[in-house]
Design a protein that fits this description.
six-stranded mixed beta sheet; disordered N terminus; alpha/beta
Length: about 180
């Protein structure tokens, strides 16, 4: 498990390590927070990581800050699965961590791939959950670390203020004591 004292921590993020997230010396981490709070910047500083960019806005903040991390643009769920397959096939690359940025956008890509609209019927969500479970098992079986970046739910006005639209909002519980601004 990474030593939290060696990782840069943004004042906007609360990081807690748990022994329950480890698999030997492997880790699976979720970073949850509002848009534009430094989740990607934080994760991209991990060594031996590859960033699966599912965000249409791309990785401009990383380039602006001079953070160098290999990036693969993933427009489809299967693109992320292919990245995991390639990491397993090429240990000489020295990469052992996949950063999914973000689960929010990957979910949208999967809905498109499955032909599920934003107002999907509940019986279709089984396909959605099965795909994520398949990806998680592949990461686990191949001993690849994972970092899952997730956007917090926000009021439509807060999402719009960040340059997004109400259709980009994710339904997730709000954390007590945090505001969407």
């Amino acid at each position: 498990m990474p030593d939290a004292s060696t990782l840069p921590v943004s004042s906007n993020l609360q990081i807690r390590w748990s022994d329950q997230t480890t698999q030997g010396d492997r880790f699976h981490i979720g970073i949850y927070g509002w848009y534009k709070t430094g989740k990607t910047v934080y994760a991209a500083r991990l060594k031996r990581a590859l960033l699966c960019n599912c965000d249409p806005e791309g990785t401009l903040p990383l380039r602006n800050l001079g953070i160098r991390v290999p990036v693969v643009d993933c427009k489809h769920f299967r693109d992320v699965e292919a990245v995991v397959d390639q990491l397993k096939a090429h240990p000489e690359w020295g990469l052992d961590t996949v950063i999914v940025d973000s689960v929010t956008w990957l979910s949208e890509a999967l809905k498109d791939d499955l032909g599920i609209g934003p107002q999907a019927k509940i019986h279709l969500w089984g396909y959605f959950l099965d795909a994520f479970k398949r990806l998680w098992k592949k990461l686990y079986a191949n001993q690849i670390n994972s970092v899952w970046i997730c956007h917090a739910a926000a009021e439509d006005a807060a999402v719009s203020a960040a340059g997004g639209s109400a259709s980009q909002r994710v339904v997730a519980p709000k954390i007590p004591g945090q505001s969407g601004a």
